[in-house]
Input
Amino acid sequence: MNTRLAQILVILTILTSLAHFAAAASPKYVDPQQVDADFAYQGEYTGLIPGTGDKQQLGVQVIALGKGRFEAVGYFGGLPGDGWNREKPLRAQGEIKDGLVEFRTDDGVAKLRNGEIAVCEPDGNQVGILKKVLRESPTLGKKPPTGAVVLFDGTPDSLQNWQGGRMTDDGLLMEGTTSKQKFGDHTVHFEFRLAYQPEDRGQGRSNSGIYLQGRYEVQILDSFGLEGKDNECGGIYSVKAPDVNMCFPPLSWQTFDIEYQAAKFDDSGKLTANPRATVRHNGVVIHDRVELPGERSTTAAPVPPGPESGPVFLQNHGCPLRYRNIWVLAR
Output
């Protein structure tokens, strides 16, 4: 190996090590009681502003980006899943100064302080107030129906239902585990809480996933306020984006309710019908009987395609997540 090539390899090794250290050093909060000062500003806001004729509803999602920086995303008609008219959202950047976060666009100014956003015209004239709201999934805490298999209920006994299962002191399941029991056609309910990682971005921001039969991933990610792609929260990874991005802010409890129809094979092992899935994220249908690729599993799936039943797999992607109230009803 020549000297120049050796130097390049050393530099690349150092840069890789530094990048890994920086990623590891970024804050990752898993407890809503132990967060930074920015966390109080992040969240959802809604209220009335002047529109064409009567006043119109405006929803805003404020995303914490770390070190006093924020992005505001404005939705006309209301928040996603609650009135948004599907027009392209407005986006603006802001920073904290003396307890105030100010977002500016060509259309006006939004001033966030003490749980309220004052919406102003470019000249500073106030035209509306948006109040902070805390939405909750209508299926949060949903009890298992008769005949359901309870995979996790916060007790030490239920931890035995998982291979390599780990539980926090306050009775929550941690990422990176596989159910011992396997399923064919089934409905699965589970609740998850994203970590708050304000300085991370993209796939490094509270990344995990639930794999149906260990084959097909419904992505888990802090995609609060993002576009809603197939590799973001609720997306069927590499297959289909959610119809609407229903991701709540990190450290909020959220739900997936998934109806899964397994692939069908004839006696010779030939695929005769692809699997399908209906996914409700926080009570809203984001996939309706979507056909999945029966000839392949999605990326990083631990179970290859086939006629056999498969487990519930909760991915470990290097981010701390928490789960609770997991049950499966075979169909």
Remarks:
- The CA atoms of residues 244 and 286 lie 6 Å apart.
- The longest strand covers residues 56-66.
- The first helix runs from residue 3 to 25.
